[in-house]
Specification:
By secondary structure, the chain is mainly α. It has 14 helices and nine strands. The strands form three sheets. It has a three-stranded antiparallel beta sheet, with no helix packed on it. Strands 2-3-4 form a three-stranded antiparallel beta sheet, with no helix packed on it. It is elongated. Bound molecules: FE2/S2 (inorganic) cluster. FE2/S2 (inorganic) cluster binds next to loops.
């Protein structure tokens, strides 16, 4: 029940609050869409806190956005182990960078009397939630490695299901507590955006970067000098912001792979015939996979039994992959008694796909090394919290009649089917 509230109710409340709250603030007082600068009260700590915090969080958010909007692209990218390591290292580095900045900002708010005077309770709540969020993110990425990979087939489909108004919490309910808290806390932060200084993320002062410098004419020499210094500072801030936007843009290009296309464009590179063929073949394969996926979905919607395999083709030491009624990967083996044994191939830890080879009577999840007993599906070791669910089956004979009394002399004639409603 609380899962439904945290992962369905809370997200929709948060998104509703975000949209309505921000529109209301824009309409009622558009000048309140800012973070109320306290720079004139204290500059030094602000610089050391604000710059790392903003650079860190922008990169982290971009990474999350790419994972949630282009999961297949990211999954393909991080299937190269070197790229996966690089992504994880970049993510962790920038998260630590953001955390350092946040801690400095927090201390500044608590210890400087002048800043304290302009600090609201909401500022402290938001700073606390952000600190908790970054810590949970760092814990998630260190305790449950390779998030850039597993999040693409667990968190990304969950987020997409929320935005498509078809919420599916099965992707997150079996997640470890830390990951669940990270998700729920993110929704809470989104909920608070319109009521806090976080709303300034919708007020990027882009025109400030490109407008002409303002000319202020003073009569007094002293004031004139002060203006020159202030203008020089403003100019250097502009350069800094432009550089920041440039770096962020560069990262976006890099991460989304657009650079791959832009560079050959300027180089005038032409694809060779072989490369074009490969490209077309890739596209064809993708289209075939998409069609196959749709066929599987419609078969599961319309049929009461789904064919898995001929019993004679199943092996005891190597599982045959198939797709269950929930469109999740599953494995079919032959048990020692000659009858089928079917398991969900979705690891109960973070949803990675189980390897189909049996070694020493065990099945392996490669993501964080969990072993499962091939006879029972029970966890032998590793972080998986629950056994692999067994999938019920029926046998049909060569006349496509359901076998009610198994004749062990005819096992090779039997076909294995899964049944609608039996494994939901
Ligand atoms: S997903 Fe972590 S052990 Fe399987």
């Amino acid at each position: 029940m609380h899962d439904y509230f945290l992962f369905v109710g809370l997200p929709y409340i948060a998104l509703f609050s975000l949209i309505v709250g921000v529109i209301y603030r824009f309409n009622s007082d558009k000048y309140s869409i800012s973070s109320l600068s306290s720079q004139f009260l204290e500059k030094e700590k602000l610089l050391w806190g604000s710059v790392p915090w903003h650079i860190g969080i922008i990169v982290i958010l971009l990474g999350h956005i790419v994972a949630f909007t282009m999961p297949s692209f990211l999954h393909a990218l991080v299937s190269n182990v070197r790229i996966l390591y690089t992504f994880e290292a970049i993510g962790l580095t920038f998260a630590l960078f953001a955390l350092c900045g946040l801690v400095i900002l927090f201390i500044r708010r608590l210890r400087n009397a002048r800043i304290q005077a302009v600090t609201s309770n909401m500022d402290l709540v938001v700073l606390s939630l952000l600190t908790i969020q970054i810590l949970l993110g760092i814990l998630t990425s260190t305790l449950f490695r390779w998030g850039a990979s597993w999040s693409t087939h667990t968190l990304a489909p969950y987020i997409q299901s929320i935005f498509l108004f078809r919420p599916d919490i099965t992707y997150v309910t079996s997640m470890p507590l830390i990951v669940k808290l990270h998700i729920a806390n993110a929704w809470l932060i989104i909920l608070l955006i319109p009521f806090s200084r976080l709303v300034h993320i919708f007020a990027l002062p882009l025109e400030y970067l490109f407008r002409l410098p303002q000319i202020v004419v003073w009569n007094s020499r002293k004031q004139e000098e002060a203006v020159i210094v202030a203008q020089a500072e403003a100019e250097s801030r502009r350069y800094f912001l432009k550089a920041l936007i440039g770096i962020t843009g560069g990262l976006i290009l890099l991460v989304t792979g657009i650079a791959d296309k832009v560079i050959p464009f300027f180089r005038g590179a032409e694809l060779t015939k072989k490369e074009k063929e490969e490209l077309l073949n890739n596209k064809l394969e993708k289209m075939k996979a998409a069609i196959k996926q749709k066929e599987l979905e419609s078969e599961r919607l319309t049929k009461d039994f789904i064919y898995v395999a001929d019993l004679k083709d199943l092996k005891t030491d190597e599982g045959m992959y198939f797709t269950d009624y929930q469109m999740k990967p599953a494995l079919a083996f032959k048990g020692n008694n000659g009858l089928p044994v079917l398991y969900s191939a979705k690891c109960t830890h973070l949803g990675c796909t189980i390897i189909n080879k049996v070694k020493d009577g065990k099945l392996l999840c490669p993501c964080h090394i969990s072993h499962f007993d091939i006879k029972t599906g029970n966890v032998i070791d590793g972080p998986a919290p629950k056994p692999l669910p067994q999938i019920k089956y029926i046998l049909m004979d060569s006349n496509t009649q359901i076998v009610t009394n198994i004749d062990t002399t005819k096992l090779n004639e039997y076909k294995v089917y899964i049944v609608k409603g039996e494994n939901t």
